[in-house]
Amino acid sequence: MRHLLTTLVVTALAVTTLLAAGASPSRAATAWTPRPAAMTTPWTDRVPVDHPLPEYPRPQLTRPDWANLNGIWDFAVTSRDAAQPTTFGERIRVPFAPESALSGIQRKITGNDRLWYRRTFTVPAGWSGRRVQLNFGASDWETTVRVNGRQAGVVHRGGYDAFSYDITPLLNGGTNTVVVSVFDPTETGGQAIGKQRIQDVTPHAGHSIVYTASSGIWQTVWLEPTAAAHITRLDMVPHPEDDTLHVTVRGTGTDGAGVEVGVSSGGTTVGSAVGTVGTEFAVPVPNARLWSPEDPFLYDVSARLTGSPGGDRVGSYTGMRSIAVKDVDGVRRPVLNGRFVFQTGTLDQGFWPDGNYTAPTDDALKYDLQKHKDLGFNMVRKHIKVEPQRWFYWADRLGLLVWQDMPSMDSGKSPDSAARTQWESEYRAIIDQHRSSPALIQWVDQNEGWGQYDQARIADMVKAYDPARLVDNMSGVNCCGARDGGNGDVVDNHNYVGPGNTPTEQMRASVLGEYGGLGYRVPGHEWYPGGGFSYEDQPSLSALNDRLVGLLDGIRQNAMPAGGLSASVYTQITDVENEANGLMTYDRQVVKVDESRVRAANQALVAASRTLGPPVRLPLEQYVSIRVTTPGYTDRYIRHHDGLGYTEVVGAGSGDLLKRDATWKVRPGLANRLCYSFESRNYPGEYLRHREFRVRREAGDDSALYKADATWCPVQGNGGIRLSAAGFPGQYLRHINAELWLAQAGGTHSWDNPAGFTEDTTWAVEAPWAP
C-alpha cells in the first residue's frame, strides 16, 4: 500500500539525514556502555547503539524529509532546582528512560532530581529555506528545550502527548547544540502517571500492581523541515453510512488556506475534495470497503495546501468503520459497522523488562499486538498508558479494536484544581493526537477511582470533544471505592477471577473491563523469582489452559447471551514485573497458553455473537415449578426443605406443603435485569441462592453479593433451559443425589461430576403446583 511504501522511503531518508546530522560527543562525557537487563527479550540485543527505533514515528502525517535524533546523548542528573551543568558526566541512549537497562543508565530517578540531555546536530543543506521543527514523541514530565542556549517555546508539561517547537530562529547555520532538561516527580507530583511509581530499578519484592517509573524522554526525538504555512494534523472521521470521509485539516500559518484531500487504494484515487483549513468537509469514498478486525483494510490519504505552487503536502491513511451503541434484541450492545460483535481482549500494560515504557524495537512493539491476533482476541485495552503513534499504526494495520485509557493520577488522592486542569488538558491533547486511528473505538476516562473526580462532566467533555467514539466514564465502577458518573456509552465492572456479569442497563452497554488474572510462574522467566502475584495460581500449564478456556466458554454460553455482556478484557497479555498473571512471560520468551485452544475459544465467542438471538424469557411475576429433565427423574421438581435446595417427586397426590415448597415466583434478577430471581412461595422475601456452592432458600441482606448469588441467567438447553449463576457464568444450577449445587463442568468437586452433567443442569419451567 502507498502509505507503507512512503514509510519505508522516509525511514531510509531518515538514516541518511541522521548521518549528516550526527551527534558530537562531549569531551567531558564517558563512553556509552549498555547495562544488563534483569530479563532480556528477543529484541534486547537487536537495539542499535547509535540509531535505535529508526522508523518514521508519525505514520498518519508523513513527509519525505526528516532526521531521527535517537541515539547517544550526553547526560547528567542534578538537583531539581540546579542550573544547567557545565559538564555532562554520563551518556544515555535516547529514547530509553534512565531507569531502564537499554538507556545505559539504569538508575532510580526521584522528585528531587532534574535530568539533562545534550547533543549536537547540523541541518542538512537540502533543507535551506524551510522551517525546522524539533519534535518529541513524549517526555515525562516537565520538559524544557534550549537550542544554542536559547529556550525553544514554552515549557511542556505532560508525559504522554507529543509536542513540537519551530527552532528555525534559534539555529546558527552550522553545528547546533540542543539541551533538554526534564523534571519528573512521578507520584510525588499531581500529574497523570498511570502505573509508574518511584522504586528500585532492579527486581525487588512487592509492588505487584504498580511498576518502575520511566522519567524523561521515552519516545523518538526528530527534526523535520516544513514550509512556513504547513499542515499539523488531519482529523478524519469515517462515515460509511454515506460512503464519505469527513476531514478537518489543521495547520500553522494557514488561515483561510485551501486544501485538497485525496483517498486512494493501490495507487488509484477513489475520491477527492477541496476545502478550507480548519473547516470540516466530506471526501467521497464510493463503495467503501469497511475496516474490521477480520478485514483491516486501510485507504491511503493525501492532503496538500493549494494556495501556491509547492504548497505543503502530507501522506496519511484511514479505515472506513463506524462504532455506536444501540438496542440489539432488547439489549444495549456496541455495534461495529452496524452489527454487534463481541469484543474479547486483554489488558495491555505496555511495560518491558529492558526498556520499561519503551519497546526495544518496532518489531517488539508490533509483537504484543500480533500475539493478540494469534490468540484470537479482537480487542486490546491499553491500560492507563498511551503508546507511541506507531503502536496505533500496528493496531490499525493488524485489525485490533482499541480501548484507550487516559493515564490516571495517583490512587487514593483527590487531585487539586491545578492537577485537574493539567490532566484534562493532557487528555484533550492525547485525543487530538490519536483521534484518526480507525482501531481506536473507545476512550476510558478513569479506572477504579484512581484520582477520580467529576466523572460525569469529564465523560460529557470527552464525548463532545470526540463524538465519533464510545466513552467509558469509569472502568471498574464496582471496585475500590470507584464512583460511576452514570453516563457514557458503557457500564464497566471488574470481576476477579470472574468472569461474572456486569448488570445490564437501558441506555449503556454492559462490559467487563477486567477479569481473569490466572497465574503461572515459568522458572527462568520470572522478574522476581518466586514473587509473582496472580488472582488465582494454577498448578500446571494444562490447568491454566483449562481454566482460561472455561472462562471464555462461560462468556460465550452465558454471560453474553443470558447476562447481556458485550465485551470483556482478560488480565493480562504478559506478566509485568511482580505479576505472574500474563498469557506470556514478561520477557516475551514464553507463551504460557496453548495458542490454538485459546484462539478457538475466542473465535467461537466472536462467531456466537454474530448469530446471537434474543435472551431466553421467563414469565415474570408469575408462579412456576421447575422440573428435572434428566431421563429417569423427570417427575422430580426443585423444592426447599429446612432452608436447603433439593429435588423431590411431586404429583397430584402430593401434600399441599410439598407443592408450595416446589413453587417459586419469577422475579426480575436482583443483580441483572436480563436474568431472574426465584422467590419462595412459602417464604416471601427469600430466594433460591448459592452459597459455598450449596443451593438454598435464604433471606436477602441487600448486599451486592447476595443479589448476585440469588440471580440466575437462563440459556436455551436441549429440551429445557439451563440456569447459570449471574456472578459465575459457566457454573450451573445442578441436581445430584437429589441435592442442588452450583456446579461447573470439569470442576474439582464431587458435584462437578461430568457424568450426566448437561442433563442434570437442564430444567423445564412449568405451571406451578401451588398457584
UniProtKB/TrEMBL annotation:
CDD domains assigned: beta-trefoil_ABD_ABFB
Residue stretches making up the Glycosyl hydrolases family 2 sugar binding domain: 110-186
Keywords, sorted A to Z: Glycosidase, Hydrolase, Signal
Signal peptide: 1-28
UniProt keyword Signal present: yes
InterPro entries: AbfB_ABD (IPR007934), AbfB_ABD_sf (IPR036195), Beta-gal/glucu_dom_sf (IPR036156), Galactose-bd-like_sf (IPR008979), GH (IPR017853), GH2_Domain-Containing (IPR051913), Glyco_hydro_2_N (IPR006104), Ig-like_fold (IPR013783)
Boundaries of every Alpha-L-arabinofuranosidase B arabinose-binding domain copy: 627-765
Domain called Glycoside hydrolase family 2 immunoglobulin-like beta-sandwich: residue spans: 237-321
Family: Belongs to the glycosyl hydrolase 2 family.
Protein name as catalogued: AbfB domain-containing protein
Species in which this protein is naturally found: Streptomyces musisoli
Lineage: Bacteria, Bacillati, Actinomycetota, Actinomycetes, Kitasatosporales
